[in-house]
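seq:
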Amino acid sequence: KIINEGLTPMNINFKKKKKNYSKSLQTGIGALEKFLKELFRLEQYPIQQNDNENEMRSMLLNKKLIRREDGVYKLTNTTINLLLSNKQFQIRNFLMKYIGNYYSKIRDETERKNKTIALIKLLFKLCTFEIGGVFYQLPDEYNNPDCYYHLEQLSNFGLINQKTDSKNPSRKKYYVTPLIKCLFEDMDNILDNQETSKFLIVETDFKIYAYTTNEREIKILEFLFEIEYIFPGFIVGHITRNSIRRVLKRDVSAKFILEYLSMHAHPKVDVECELDEGTKYKIPENVAHQILI
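struct:
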């Protein structure tokens, strides 16, 4: 059905005023960062008695992104590897988990197939929207509670921006962000070249310096390495055997650690090493080999 219909643009009325590309991109990245930060906070989060999990947490449990253990939530190795990955990889994976979770919740087989096709079709159509073009409702074919539910959930991943209309609090307004392009285009360069994503310096003596105020990145650094000092906007730490062993025991891939360090390398970093498999990393060679051992 999807292939036969193709990517013909959805017939929709946009508000004349729209958000520019740069602002839309930052809105999307901000929403994704918020989601990832909340996800990371679940590590060691105590499970309350009679705690009814919200919809997103239920999805995380169902798709084995988090698990219950000894009265707390634990991130699975799949989730930790995702948190170390680039944003495009994160978006695509979380979206696949979302589609799979939605599919599994519908009991009737025929309804399950039809509704999942409708969801994927909606995603195709959203990719044809003008970036930042504001709209208030979907056309008749898509104007149903399921589609608006999907818009709300997709806003968690930064693909859609959903806000209450200030002039009419009873209705919502929406626009797609450039992150929606991650589904069908290569957005790595655009997303990874954001100024705030290049903050790490790794030295040959295994010392690390991080210029960041991003709460999620700080938590990841504390999870991966031995942190010595945390100053406003500046962090000092060490990559130690104990810290790497602790992370690897959680079934986190050494490759994801190397990619994380390289992906966030500060623009001033000019060192580069090439390992046996031909992959280049912007970290000292001795550090890369130590992490792989």
